[in-house]
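Re: the multi-chain job from yesterday

Posting the exact lines I submitted so nobody has to dig through the queue logs.
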Amino acid sequence: MTGYEFAVCLTHDVDRVYRTYQSVYNAITERDPTRVAGLFSSQNPYWQFERIMDAESERGVRSSFHILDEKSLRERPVREWFSTSGWKLFAGRYDPTDPDIAATLRVLDRFGWEIALHGSYTSSTDPGRFGHEKSRIEAAADTRIRGNRQHYWRHSPPDTWRHLRDAGLRYDLSLGDSHALQYQHGYDLHRPFDDEFVVFPWSLMDGAVMRSAESPAGALENCTGVFEEAREHRSVLCLDWHLARFAGSDYPGWGEVYERAIDRALEMGAWVGPPGRFYEALDHPEGTVDDALATLASTTDRREAPSGSPSLATHDRSE
Ligand SMILES: [Zn+2]
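And the result, C-alpha cells for all chains:
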C-alpha cells in the first residue's frame, strides 16, 4: 500500500428537504395563489438522499449528512414572520423526527453514512441548544453524533466550540470562509482546548466552486486546484455539498461536478470518506493529518464503504 497523499471528507448540509416554503412565500409576496401549487406537488425536488447514496455507493465512498433541528417560525418573534429572512431561516425548516426523515437517517446510518449535526442559526451563542438538537437527532436516527458544522457557519470561537464539546461533540467543521477557494487557517487540524476536540481547517462549499466558473467543467477544474493545494500540503479538505443542490432543475450541473470531484480526488491519491471516520483515525491530543493518513492507509482500503448496498426502492418519494 502506497499510502494516501491527502484526505477529502465528504459532507452534506441538510438545510431543506422540501421546496414548499418558497412556494408559499412567493404566493404571498407575488399575490399569485397559483404559486402554492408547488406545495401539493408529489415531487419534492430537494429530497435528494437517494441520488447521493447512489452516487457515493457507485464510487465505494461514504459521507456525512449534517442535520438541522431549526427553531420553528412560531418560536421566533412575530416581526420575523413577515420578513424574507424570517421565512428563509425558520419557515423552511424540517423536523428531524418526522417519520420519513427519521427512517431515512436510519437507513443512511445502517449503510455506513455518518449522521452529524448542523447547528441551528442561533445555536452559536446558546449554550444549551446543542445538547437539545443533538439528542433529538440521535433519537430519530438511533445513532451517536460526533460532528458538527454550523448553519451559515455561524460560530463565535472559542465559546461555540466549548459549548459543542460540553454537549459531547468531538469535531467541528465551521472554520473558514464559505466563499473561498483557498485555505485560510493553515493545513492541519486545530485543537482549541489541546484535547480530543478537533476543528478541521476548512470546508470547500459547493457555491464557492460552482460560482467560480462559467461552466461545470471550469468549476471542476477550480475544485481540482483546491485538491492540488491540499495534496501539496498533505492536508484534509471537507467538501460541503448541500442536499438540495443535487436538484438538477434548480442547480444544473452541481451534482455532476460533485461526482466528478470524488473521481478526481481518488485519482489524485486521496483518502475519501466521512469526517467522523477520519476523526477516528486520530490520536489525541497530538495526532496530525499526517498521522491520520498513515493510520487510514494501514487500516482501510482506499474507499470507505462497508459491504452491502442500500435498497433504495422503499424510499421512493415520488409516490
Ligand atoms: Zn446550513
